[in-house]
């Protein structure tokens, strides 16, 4: 007889595991399945750190981040350890009246003032005096002291351990090839095995288009392969780097699109040689894909590595050399917003993470739980609707 679960969750990344964690005490049986392993390197949740902040240009995201921070805190109490490190975040560079996928300095300042989020304003001189960052005289900065880094791998481990401790199942190396909606949801795995569940959550990250299509949704979605790297730095500088985003105005078509980010030294490499993580926050056209297949052997374009190195060695003091590079996917929507919605009575989805969802994990998990249980949502989710006009093809 086919086994029947209360909830099946497709995807063992941030969204799948945070929703399993949220649901763990509310239903009898959850099955989380992943085609690889949880938090695998082909999906978007790999690596040890992600930034969290309330410094958003869009008040909706700033408010959601505030709620998320309250929920992170209660998860940390249960865990008995920190899942976030609050070392602050610097937004610095130029403001030219346009929004990037991370927002802009001016609009973020306005939102923080409205939301009463504490922040400091800094001149270019003050920035360079405080951190080993070179600036142009016209640059400006905002520093949000309560922001910082989420310990992403530790959070995934915590949600996984808690889910299993509560008697639920996590199966890895099982690929779901079909999700069929009816009175129950029938899931078929690649090996032909079928299972039933009352409710289903699709949390397939960059593979979401496959399931959206299967269920009749044609929406805009692009996969951006994002470059980040570890750099070695002079030992005496190691502890002096902040967490930052740098914004620079560039012409459309310029191979350097001017948006970069970096982490302080977090001691997060196994064979730690004093490395800091720095990334590019745009993708060149050749790294923007319609369909995602990690088996496609994508090479990191040499000119993109040179662009990153050029920024790093021009604007950051004390960097010695690039020692490790990675590509990791953002699932982008045209408005850089998420999809968190019901596709049918029994099937809910989180998708279109747009490279910024980890900090929202507790609100994503809790809202998916409430969709599954037909409970009132934490807040209005219409900006994340799968049917919003900006996603229409
Ligand atoms: C380089 C980079 C930097 C980022 N920085 C930040 C940051 O600073 N702050 C922040 O808040 N966010 C950040 N993000 C975004 C954040 O990491 C993602 O939003 C989040 O990890 C997305 O999680 P997910 O669960 O939606 O997707 P994923 O982690 O990709 O999980 C989807 C899972 O579904 C599984 N799956 C897919 N199809 C199937 C199938 N058919 N059968 C079984 N399993 C399947 C996959 O194997 C995968 O494990 C960053 C992302 C990247 C890539």
UniProtKB/TrEMBL annotation:
Keywords: FAD, Flavoprotein, Oxidoreductase. GO terms for molecular function: flavin adenine dinucleotide binding; sarcosine oxidase activity. Transmembrane segments: none annotated. SUPFAM superfamilies: FAD/NAD(P)-binding domain (SSF51905). It comes from the Bacteria. It holds the Pfam family DAO. The keyword Transcription does not apply. Its cofactor is FAD. Residues 6-368 form the FAD dependent oxidoreductase domain. This is FAD-dependent oxidoreductase.
């Amino acid at each position: 007889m086919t086994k029947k679960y209360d909830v099946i969750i497709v995807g063992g990344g941030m969204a799948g595991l945070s929703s399993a964690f949220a649901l763990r005490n509310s239903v009898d049986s959850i099955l989380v399945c992943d085609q690889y392993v949880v938090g695998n390197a082909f999906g978007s949740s790999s690596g040890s750190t992600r930034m969290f902040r309330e410094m958003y240009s869009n008040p909706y995201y700033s408010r959601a981040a505030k709620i998320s921070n309250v929920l992170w805190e209660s998860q940390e109490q249960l865990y008995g350890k920190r899942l976030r490190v609050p070392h602050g975040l610097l937004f610095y560079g130029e403001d030219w009246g346009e929004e990037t996928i991370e927002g802009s300095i001016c609009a973020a300042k306005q939102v923080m003032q409205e939301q009463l989020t504490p922040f400091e304003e800094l001149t270019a001189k003050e920035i360079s005096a405080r951190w080993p960052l070179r600036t142009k005289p016209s640059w400006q900065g905002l520093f949000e002291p309560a922001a910082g880094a989420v310990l992403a791998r530790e959070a995934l481990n915590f949600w996984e351990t808690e889910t299993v401790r509560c008697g639920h199942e996590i199966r890895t190396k099982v690929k779901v090839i079909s999700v069929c909606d009816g009175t129950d949801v029938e899931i078929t795995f690649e090996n032909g095995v079928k299972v039933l569940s009352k409710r289903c959550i699709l949390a397939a990250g960059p593979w979401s288009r496959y399931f959206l299509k299967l269920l009749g949704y044609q929406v805009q979605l692009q996969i951006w392969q994002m470059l980040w790297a570890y750099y070695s730095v002079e030992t005496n500088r190691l502890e002096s780097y902040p967490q930052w985003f740098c914004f620079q105005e560039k012409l459309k078509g310029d191979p350097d699109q001017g948006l970069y980010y970096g982490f302080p030294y977090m001691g997060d490499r196994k064979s730690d040689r004093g490395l800091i993580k720095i990334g590019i926050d745009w993708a060149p056209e050749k790294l923007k894909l319609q369909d995602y297949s990690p088996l496609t052997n994508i090479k990191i374009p040499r000119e993109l590595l040179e662009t990153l190195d050029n920024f790093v060695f021009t604007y950051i003091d004390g960097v010695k050399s690039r020692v490790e590079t990675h590509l990791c996917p953002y699932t982008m929507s045209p408005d850089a917003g998420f999809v968190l919605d019901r596709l049918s009575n029994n099937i809910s989805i989180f998708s279109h993470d747009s490279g910024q969802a980890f900090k929202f994990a507790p609100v994503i998990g809790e809202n998916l739980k409430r969709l599954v249980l037909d409970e009132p949502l934490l807040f209005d989710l219409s900006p994340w609707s799968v049917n919003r006009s900006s996603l229409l093809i």
